[in-house]
User: Fold this.
Amino acid sequence: MRQAGPLERGQPVRFGDCVSTLLADGDWAVIECGPGRTLAGLVRQRLPRAAMAPLASLPGPTERTGDVATLHGAAGELWLAGLTVRPFGPPGRRTPLPTYPYQRKRYWIDADPVGAPAVSTANVEQPFEQWFKVPVWRQLPVATGRFGFDDGCLVFVAGERGAALAEAMRADGVAVTEVRPSELATRADYDRLVAAGVPARIVHAWALDATPASDIWQAQETGFFSLLWLGQVLAGRPVDVHLDIVSAGAEDVLGGDLTHPEQATMDGVARVLPLELSWLTVRRVDAYPDHTTTGQLLDELRAPFDVPLADSWRTVALRSGRRWSIEHRQVPLPSGSDGVRTEGRYLITGGLGGVGLTIAEDMATRSRARLVLLSRSGLPPREDWDTQLAVHGSTGHVGRAIAAIRRMEQAGARVLVVAADVTDPADLDRVRARVTAEFGGLDGIVHAAGLPGGGVAELKDRSVATAVLAPKLAGTLALRQAFGDLALDFVLLCSSTVAFVGGFGMVDYCAANAFLDAYARSDHGWSCRVLSVNWAGWVEIGMEVDGLDGAAARDAARLAVPVEHPILRSRSGLACWGTLAGGATLSADDHLDAVRAAAAECLAGPVDLSDVVFGAPLSIPDGSAAEYRVEFWEGGGFTVTSLREGVRAEHARGGRIVGRAKPVADTRGIRPARGAEAFRRALAVDLGPQIVINTEVLDDMVARVRRPAVARLDDTVVEPVEETQAEVVSELAAMLCAIWAETIGVDRVRLDDDFFELGGNSLVAVQLIARISRKAGVRLPMRTLFDTPTVGALAASIERLRAAEPAAAAAPGITRLARRQ
Assistant:
């Protein structure tokens, strides 16, 4: 072995470069001299996959192995690797072992797949004329067969109609347990509800007795949030459950029957939870009271869960004894027509976001419009714009907005930038007064404000979901209150295809946009046309989260190229992103490792890390989640940011890009010029209150969302684990070995392999804990890997958690009501 020379005190330690230089000079066996495996873990990241893992010479503070045992173990590993180790300590005792381990492998030859492969249209952009679709109702056949309630049913009852449904179910022989809103006032009440077990059927019918909501948030208490909390407690008990969500007046089959648009947010649960919880199926039944009897509703709940319907929209509307389902039909839109006035006056909420700026710039250049761009934060004073661009350039969010506004004004437009909260009616009253003073009134409104959401429903915090819902729900109602009496040409609501397709991790975002669609189709009270546009993902508009930019970023995640990295899971253009689960704490070295990985994905050349400034530390509280993002700027280095609870924080900035961006081989996104043209065409022709603008075949998009590009662990095939006579692997341990091998990136994991010895670090630990928690059906805190760093110890810890569940089940649950005579 050779030893590197000492460093003088005060010199920077370029540890990564030193290790790379060392490893370039032949094959090395690495052992850390000192307690623990901190440096060994850093070295492991730079070793080839097949190389010998670094060894520890002394145990760390949390390890229970003694000093002598650790030292002897390291010496044994060196000897097994072929190195000569001089004897030390007392002489050992020779123990005979079998001459070879028993290997168990599967050698069965699988049959060839039957049938010719189908020609796929995935990743293919349709001609522009085929982008436009409208929702239409299709009558479903009479349901045949019966979907039983053999194990009883938990029914959420809030009033007379719900009670009548529960009584009809009892009369039909169903063992019904009723639960009232007063019994489930807090999140903890839902835990107690399922403490004694979960029935195979649940009917959530609180909305059946809803009255027109004077407070939209009160409707969410008994609707969206109640279902979100129910989904969270079901996520902790992975048993097969079917959930029926009953709404009343959330669909417009007949015209005039959509009286409760606030109930449409329950679609977020119906369309997203089954993607995240493989054992859960969900159907939403809309039973309009004046056209649906209790018997007809019970017949629908008895109907088999229709599989083709489950793969599409998951909603059945009952009207006068008939069953209806919604689908989307392509319609042609003529070219040459225009829905924007020359020198018209338009308010754009989320006006500094990517979509808002794109629409504004098109209005400015083609119609010399007078524009009011509303955002939460606004821009610096105009007299500071030159300084802003000189210091920060035009590649960041603020710089792009300033450059775009200057182009608009050069084209003859007038632009007013206003900072205001779109959910605050008082703020919007002040905006109206200023707009009236500057422009004399308004001709139209584009509501493009929004937050992206993101994160699995199981970990969704109420405050996070509220922040995502607020701009769409409260913001839309506040706009009506402030501007509803004006004689406008249109109000255009920027919705998303996620509203009717769903998407993994988008329960709140799906709910918020589903409300926009329902609101546009309802009796909203505006005197002008209200149009909800379900946009597909936009590309090439920048990804800073402001206005609809965050929503566009979330849509674009579905269009991105998958990335093989513990945290960074997707890439589009010059950005890579992923999700951090609660308990994650990332160091400066972790950020730099993420930058290197993102550079390898996004750039054709290296990134210079010689001039990096670190910002706010990153630590995610337990029970929360955050988006983690690395983004490069042409000629301007990179930024590392996170988004949690609607707040984006910067953790690192600097560097210099050496090279150019790699092309992304995906043509499905809406590009700015086409998006602006689609916006004008949608306004020019009145095809109803809702229109879908999507670049690909709708069935392909649905199939892709149901099976995302980045495959989830639950869908992967776990190869058989090799066993020896001395290593009999349980089913749980085998599953853990497979997860560890995939996440850490090693070929094989054994029961006594140490997570940190295999090269694990905090970045990998975040993803590993999240995957194990989902797969094993238990909640594991981040400290678990530090307390039990081997597969065997972790499996034992999970078994103890599972064994503790019966004790928790002894807590009092909701008392079953006696059957009425």
User: Anything to note?
Assistant: Confidence is low (pLDDT under 50) at residues 309-313, 542-559, 708-729, 807-821. Residues 397 and 544 are 6 Å apart (CA to CA). The chain is about 35% helix and 20% strand.
